Amino acid sequence: MKAFSKDTYSKRRDILKKNVESGIIVLMGNQESSVNFKDNWYPFRQDSTFLYYIGIDIPDVMAIIDVDSGEEVLFGDDLSIDHIVWTGPQPTVQELASEVGISKSLPLSKVEEYIKSASGRNVHILPPYRPENTVKLQSWLGKVAPSEELIRAVVKQRSIKSKEEVAEIDKAVTISAQMHLEIIKNARPGMKEHELVGMVQGTAVGAGGTLAYPAIITVNGQILHNHYYGNTLKEGDMVLCDTGAEASSHYAGDLTRTFPVSKQFTSEQRDLYQIVLDSQNAAIDMLKPGVKFKDVHLTACAKLVDGLKTIGLMKGDTAEAVDAGAHAMFFQCGLGHLMGLDVHDMEDLGEQFVGYDEPKSTQFGLKSLRLGKELEAGNIVTVEPGIYIIPELIDLWGKEKKFDQFINYDKLNDFRDFGGIRIEDDFVIDEEGHTLLGEPLAKEIKDIEAIREASFS
Amino acid sequence: MKAFSKDTYSKRRDILKKNVESGIIVLMGNQESSVNFKDNWYPFRQDSTFLYYIGIDIPDVMAIIDVDSGEEVLFGDDLSIDHIVWTGPQPTVQELASEVGISKSLPLSKVEEYIKSASGRNVHILPPYRPENTVKLQSWLGKVAPSEELIRAVVKQRSIKSKEEVAEIDKAVTISAQMHLEIIKNARPGMKEHELVGMVQGTAVGAGGTLAYPAIITVNGQILHNHYYGNTLKEGDMVLCDTGAEASSHYAGDLTRTFPVSKQFTSEQRDLYQIVLDSQNAAIDMLKPGVKFKDVHLTACAKLVDGLKTIGLMKGDTAEAVDAGAHAMFFQCGLGHLMGLDVHDMEDLGEQFVGYDEPKSTQFGLKSLRLGKELEAGNIVTVEPGIYIIPELIDLWGKEKKFDQFINYDKLNDFRDFGGIRIEDDFVIDEEGHTLLGEPLAKEIKDIEAIREASFS
Is A47 on the interface with B (CB under 8 A)? Predict the structure, then answer.
């Protein structure tokens, strides 16, 4: 059930105890989540920080770490024989605890008493994102006030992946690449988007995990938050596929490819695709320790502007356009994010702690960049530039002639039904610079077209 | 987005208003549910009663029906242009309301005021099963006290399926049958259970829906609550597969088949399989309006006992054995349940209202029967007898020689590693008796073996 050795978890907790000055640390596990009635459950997902420090992948357990005394307690309830008839034999809570190096266990009914006995000392909690955990913390503590000290300690540890973590992420990305390859081969005119979603979901679950996030598989790639799968694929469309596997260890992969429903891209699609790919390559080249990811983002934006100028969609000085934020007509979001046990790693802990060490820009476009700070060896990042032609944004900005010194609105209107393109890969930052994670997945125009061509014959 | 016509929803609400005497009816929609951070969501599932009366399949809406004035209000918030840049153009809340025959809409911020304005009148709510809805109802009403009058009115309507509902359930069951057929054909020694789960999930999602409940696909069919998929299929094992599709309209299918990993059943497997199949057929023969489902269950149990006596696992008088509950050594659960928008239809509303009109038995086995009452035309039921050899139960009862006048413990011990068998189909009760739902799926021993045999060549 656990991904790593007993020692791994003990050592992680020992470091945590050093990074938090005093008090007790309450690590909430997750419960089952109900779909349409109480006992019909979504697939169980343990909390990622709980997985990182405790490693126990079942519902209804939680842990408390006493920083001062060093005591570690796993809370959970053993099954009665009546339950075991339905579930088969299960390890006891104490057995589970021992497997991850925790010597003490108590029933859940003792949590409140244990927390109350720490009265007067710091009780460190993380921000809850599930309502039932909010309710519990509220009832035990009277208020839900996450501990910045604990958040910073967790972020510090989880941001730097060990070799064994990188190996798990590499597996997840390889499964993700297989998911993409399957649909690049099998997508056909006349199919519904949900048929492709079924393929990638089947592959992810078949590999022993699940999807790391709801798949975006759409002929409307310009709609960034798109989980509608009812469109029919037509000749001339592109499919934007943003999907990634969660491996059985719960580490995530996150890849995006955009490919033509026909055997080949149209000439316009080819032009814009190459601009996105050039932007991605420029960004990837910069990845190394000590470089600010915000600067990588801005370089990718500049490269997009350079390309868009060559085909007449943008104009003027590239640096000035990026500085003003004019590229955000085409690229409204961020270049990438940290990845790990969460696809947006530690998003629950707060972007100001995870992605930034200075205040984030409020400029449209830049304000959606999740990661701005300096890269360190052991970080895992995605690099995912895109071009999204959003008719509503053309109309909104066009009306006020916003950035018309940089944007060629006349020409842009010819592209208003173009759609969207994104290309995304995952990298580990290492001392030498960076390494691509997972089996490489085709992304050059000629390679994508070759796969499509071969698959039709 | 909606499954049926505007008129269908208006008429359903008109009937509901007649069946509730006075006051206002608050129908909670569902929100998104977070997986591992707030904005990483499980696939959205609307509440089934909300779908039934309102039909709007998006998060963050709810409805209030004033029984006395007849007013119907949909509550929800329109997207701002900032949102539309990310989501593409969306219908307004008022447009959504109009599509289902509701003339008035208000923002969510007005719910509390609307409810407070009904002060002194009955405010009817259903039992919440998601914590965020519990929290909301608590804050608006001060307490969460579900209305028995509303529950009874909803159960009365939802229990009897219209032709168009039956057609949707038929579709869901046909997809479910395809899911089963695929794994009966493709299961091979050496595969992991999760590879089969990937196939059925891919098929369900590919068809435009999802799974109606977490699949049970296991070589340990005797573990009734089994969602572990890590075992390897071996020659001589049986795979118990209990899985069903939720169609895009959200109606469920629910089928179970048990098949050999080898091309054929062993002689022991064949004996027990035929006993379960005979029991299922005896039960199916009884299905018609006016028959108590509890009696169908007891007939199925008696048939199991008859069969188990022929191979020496049980002994004594069949009727006495069933009356005492001795068959529950082999069949610990209920014969079936209602099915509709929920796989266990309306389980959130309470079994005492949905499945029974008299107190339920507390006997081990019978107490797990979800449906006891008289069948009516328009009911949808599952029929799913089984034989489960549970070592822990043999040891528990064997120690106290429980029912040893009916159970041959010596012989049973030879079967302790046998596993489990279940066979399940879905039926609509009609005036003529009953009709099988979905495309028929092989279940005779010779038919299952023929599919296995053919698939290997």
Answer: yes
Query: What secondary structure letter does DSSP report for A246?
Result: E
What secondary structure, in 3-state letters, does B381-435 show?
A: EEECCEEECCHHHHHHHHHCCCCCCCECHHHHHHCCCCCEEECEEEEEEECCEEE
- Determine the average pLDDT of the residues in B151-172: 98
For A361-391, write each residue's pLDDT tens digit: 999 999 999 999 999 999 999 999 999 999 9
Rounded CA separation A149/A220 (Å):
43
CA distance B347 to A178: 39
Provide the residue range defining the domain that includes B132.
6-159
Select from A97, A126, A159 the last residue of a domain: A159
Q: What is the pLDDT of residues B319-342, one digit of tens each?
A: 999 999 999 999 999 999 999 999
Are residues B145 and B176 located together in one domain of the fold?
no
Three-state DSSP class for B268?
helix
**Inside any domain, residue A1:** no
If one counts the domains in chain A, the total is: 2
Q: How many Cα atoms are found within 13 Å in the side-chain-facing hemisphere of A353?
A: 22
* Whole-number Cα distances in Å, B19 to A403, B156, B310: 60, 9, 51
Best residue of B1, B31, B32, B36 to probe chain A, by most A CBs closer than 10 Å:
B36
Judge whether B422 and B442 are in contact, CB under 8 Å: no
Do A183 and A226 reside in the same domain of the chain?
yes
Selection from A289, A247, A259 nearest residue A435 by Cα: A289
Question: Of A39, A130, A208, which is closest to B34 when you measure between CB atoms?
Answer: A130
Q: What is the CATH number for B40? A: 3.40.350.10
Q: What is the mean pLDDT of residues B396-425?
A: 97
pLDDT, residue A1, reads: 66
Residues B140-152: pLDDT tens digits? 999 999 999 999 9
Tokens at B420, concatenated: 């489990």
Question: In sequence order, what are the beta bridge partners of B217?
Answer: B241
Specify whether the CB–CB gap between A200 and A243 falls below 8 A.
yes
Nearest to B392 among A85, A204, A214 (CB): A85
Chain B residue numbers with beta carbons less than 8 Å from the beta carbon of A48 are: 36-37
Residue B227, pLDDT > 90, answer no
The partner residue sitting opposite A86, judged by closest CB among B199, B225, B396, is B225
Q: Tokens 């022993």 belong to which residue?
A: A208
- Please name every residue paired with B241 in a beta bridge, in sequence order, or none if there are none: B217, B257
The b/e string for B47-75 (b: 16+ C-beta within 10 A; e otherwise) is bbbbbbbbbbbeeebbbbbbbeeeebbbb
Query: The domain that contains B382 carries what CATH number?
Result: 3.90.230.10
- Tell whether the model's pLDDT for residue B1 goes beyond 80: no
Given A159, A192, A209, the domain boundary residue is: A159
Rounded to an integer, the average pLDDT of A85-112 is 96
CA angle at residue A322 from A386 to A298, to 5 degrees?
Answer: 60
Position A442 in a domain: yes
User: pLDDT higher for A88 or B257?
Assistant: B257
What pLDDT score does B394 carry? 97
**Beta-carbon count within 10 A of A29 CB:** 22
For residues B347 and B223, state if they share a domain.
yes
